[in-house]
Structure formats: structure tokens, C-alpha cells
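sry for the spam today, last one i promise. C-alpha cells for design, 165 residues
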């Protein structure tokens, strides 16, 4: 029903999140409608990246703290995004400083050929550029310059991805 493996159910049971209401005569776990609803909440929160410990705390007071747990998750995601942007900047700076951009351009061109051969479409490329532009416009433009795009080509690409957004 939720695509959860047996080992995950056992893990949730050991972590104190979820267990079967009862067992059959042959020892199979049986779940009630209440159990199913609880598992639904657990899966939703896990899919959002909420740690098991926070879910356990949340489940002890159902309905209370939903806003808090979700806001904490948003803050954690924002922090992760910041770390990734910093890493992105550091990688671009290192490539530039080490003169590795020529090699990177050749590798990316080979990668583009390979991507087309395995069926990645122009639309997929546009989505990558659209996401990059949204996440970090300055880094995206810098990356495009490093790849050898002219100012005119960058402007044209940005207009195209905005138009199709």
C-alpha cells in the first residue's frame, strides 16, 4: 500500500514509531485502519526528510507541533541549500583557478553527446538550466561563461528558459 519493505516496518517497530495492532494465529502482523493512518503520517514526514526521532516525538502528541516540525525541516533544507551553493561556488572557483575549465568543457561536451545518445532531450537540458538559474543566477551565468557561452548566447538561453517556465 505504501511501498514500504518488511525491513522498514521492522525498523519503525524497533524505533517505537509503528507496530501491528495484533497478530494472526500464524504470527502474521495485522494492521488496523488506525495503524494505516499512522503509517501514512510517518511516510509523509519521512518523505519530507523529517528524522525518525522527531517523528517519534510528534507522534506522542498527534496534531500538535505540525507547524513546528515542518518549519524546522524548511530551515534545515535552506541550510543544506546554502551549503550546496557554497560548494558550487568553490568548485567553480577551483576549476577557474586551476585552469581546469578547458578539460571540464571537453568533458561536458562529451557528456552532452552521451546524454543525447541515451535519450536526454533538449527539454531536460532546459529544466537543468531553469533550476540552476532559479537556485543561483550568478553561479549559473558564471558557469555558462566558463563553458564558453558568449554574453549574447547566455541572454538568449535565459530568455528561452523564462519563456518556457
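last one done:
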Amino acid at each position: 500500500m505504501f511501498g514500504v519493505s518488511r525491513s522498514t516496518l521492522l525498523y519503525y517497530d524497533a524505533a517505537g514509531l509503528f507496530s501491528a495492532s495484533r497478530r494472526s494465529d500464524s504470527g502474521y502482523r495485522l494492521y488496523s485502519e488506525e495503524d494505516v493512518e499512522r503509517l501514512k503520517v510517518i511516510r509523509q514526514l519521512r518523505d519530507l526528510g523529517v528524522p525518525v526521532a522527531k517523528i517519534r516525538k510528534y507522534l506522542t502528541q498527534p496534531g500538535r507541533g505540525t507547524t513546528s516540525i515542518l518549519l524546522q525541516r524548511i530551515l534545515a533544507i535552506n541550510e543544506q541549500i546554502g551549503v550546496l551553493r557554497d560548494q558550487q561556488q568553490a568548485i567553480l572557483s577551483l576549476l577557474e583557478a586551476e585552469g581546469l575549465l578547458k578539460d571540464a568543457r571537453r568533458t561536458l561536451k562529451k557528456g552532452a553527446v552521451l546524454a543525447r545518445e541515451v535519450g536526454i532531450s533538449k527539454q531536460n537540458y532546459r529544466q537543468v538550466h531553469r533550476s540552476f538559474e532559479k537556485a543561483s543566477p550568478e553561479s549559473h551565468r558564471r558557469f555558462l561563461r566558463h563553458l564558453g557561452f558568449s554574453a549574447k548566447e547566455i541572454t538568449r538561453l535565459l530568455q528561452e528558459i523564462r519563456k518556457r517556465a
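The helical segments are 6-14, 33-47, 52-60, 66-97, 101-117, 122-135, 137-146, 151-163. ok im logging off now
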